[in-house]
Amino acid sequence: MPATHLPRRGDRIRAALVLGTRPEAIKLAPVLRAMSASPLFEPMVISTGQHREMLDQMLQRLRMDSSRDLAVMRDRQRLSGLTARLISGLGEAVRDDRPDVVVVQGDTTTAMTGALAAFYEGVPVAHVEAGLRTGVIGNPFPEELNRRLVAPMVRWHFAPTEGSAANLRAEGVPAGDIQVTGNTVIDNLLWVLERGEGRSAFATSRRRVLVTLHRRENQGGTMHGIAEALGELAGRPDVEIVLPLHKSPAVREALLPVLDGLPHVRLVEPLDYFDFAATLAACDLVLTDSGGVQEEAPTLGKPVLVLRTTTERPEAVDAGVALLVGTEPADVIGAAHRLLDDRAAYERMATAVNPFGDGRAAERVVNRLALDLAGAGRSTESGEGDLAVA
Ligand code: UD1
Ligand code: UDP
Q1: What CATH number is given to the structural domain containing 243?
Q2: Which of 81, 91, 129, 288 is the 20 to 30 A CA-CA neighbour of 350?
Q3: One Pfam family of this protein, by short name (predicted)?
Q4: Angle between helices 22-36 and 184-195 in degrees, nearest 10
């Protein structure tokens, strides 16, 4: 591994937060807030622009300024072209900015190439939300591969749960390089709800079902089948569905022909994070293939039907608040009817649990980086140890 450049004692730690998609902005916002509040850090945001409208919406609403925007998004971008534009732009950005640490988050292609660009430039990498695994290389696609590629390049693995830390140890990552922090998404969810600025997108007092769908491996026929199941669900006399549509044309092509114009189905543009959090807080049931939503719903005690065949977030299923129902229309509709008709089954799932953290994950990330990069005794707070997450 090339030599890394540690900041001189007394210098501020130049931390480059690399992000490009909606969930990365949401999950790195608390890290940016914590670094901005610390005299030890000089944070900068390198935006790849892997997403456009959905990213800009979050950056503006969460007041995150980027120092660079690589503007890589293309309509219907293919993974190879996206990866090529990202590695080229990020390589130059890291070379020009010379940060002391590059922080990447999660499993996107922005995160994978951000780590690779930093590795090539000899800058140490911190990975927020490290260690999640489904064990199936092609699912989710390409995120499981992205996460596995990132791991060997990382100096600090910030694992959200004990389970994700165990995954990393099983792959040979030294225990001392791993810290269990909780997930920063919970920090942001609690922060946003506390401000109380969001508005729910539900319009009636029917049973409120919130749906999000976007995964590449679900696009096409699978997503079309799920749409038909949602149409059938909306046929119930007691249900209202809110579905914020992802900007991806492939998602819209699968959903709109089936769902557009159906009564009691509200197809809305992507909600800003304040409104999404309020909508989640107001709902009765969540159907989703999203990673982040699987983490947020348990905190609010909202039962989740996970519309996927695998999950790298088994903690919510283990806690009893999520069910991995797969993508077969009959399974989706069957599970939804059961929860809406069987009060006891619903109540068993509608229990608020916190398997993904206590809202202080970013503080732990920033403390650890301060300790290791600026020297012992210079942490932003008490230098607390690992978070024990049940
Ligand atoms: C990406 C991530 C996925 C993450 C998801 C969060 C990869 C390979 N995929 O998936 O891990 O879960 O973001 O939402 O990193 N588009 C717009 N405007 C936008 C955003 C997207 O028009 O603001 C359209 C473009 O046509 C773009 C397409 O959506 O080509 C797909 O975007 P892309 O980032 O490649 O994949 P996602 O499915 O959004
Ligand atoms: N989200 C949002 N507005 C929406 C839909 C989702 O703010 O209309 C938030 C949601 O709260 C979660 C994140 O976006 O924090 C999840 O993003 P997405 O599902 O696109 O990606 P994933 O988490 O699957 O990578």
Answers
A1: 3.40.50.2000
A2: 129
A3: Epimerase_2
A4: 80
Could you tell me if 114 and 147 are in contact, meaning their C-beta atoms sit under 8 angstroms apart?
no
- Binding site membership of 292 for ligand 2 (Cβ less than 6 Å): yes
Active site residue 68: no
> Which residue has a Cα nearest atom 6 of ligand 2?
276
Q: What is the pLDDT of residues 77-115, one digit of tens each?
A: 999 999 999 999 999 999 999 999 999 999 999 999 999
Query: For ligand 2, is residue 19 a contact (CB within 6 Å)?
Result: no
Strands 265-268 and 125-128: unpaired
Q: Which tens digit of pLDDT belongs to each residue from 36-70?
A: 999 999 999 999 999 999 999 999 999 999 999 99
CA distances from residue 202 to 61, 209, 233, 272, 302 in whole angstroms, order as listed: 21, 9, 16, 15, 15
One domain for residues 144 and 245 = no
**pTM reported for the whole predicted model:** 0.95
Do 173 and 214 lie in one domain? The reply is no
Cα 311 from Cα 297, distance rounded (Å): 15
What range defines the domain where residue 276 resides?
199-350
pLDDT at 35: 98
Residue for token digits 């649990």? Answer: 353
Strand 101-105 vs strand 125-128: parallel, antiparallel, or unpaired?
parallel
> Ligand 1, atom 24: nearest CA belongs to which residue?
248
**Residue 222 covered by a domain:** yes
Helix ranges (H only) for 260-342 are 273-282, 291-299, 314-318, 329-341
User: Are residue 263 and residue 144 in the same domain, yes or no?
Assistant: no
Looking at all shown ligands, the one closest to residue 292's CA atom is 2
Query: Does the Cβ of 212 fall within 6 Å of ligand 2?
Result: yes
Phi, psi of 233 (to 5 degrees): -60, -40
130 found inside a domain: yes
Q: How many domains does the chain have?
A: 2
Nearest ligand, CA 269: 2
> CB of 302 closer than 6 A to ligand 2?
no
- Give the list of residues 6+ apart from residue 91 with CB closer than 8 angstroms, or none: 117, 120, 121
Contact call for residues 149 and 86 (beta carbons, < 8 A): no
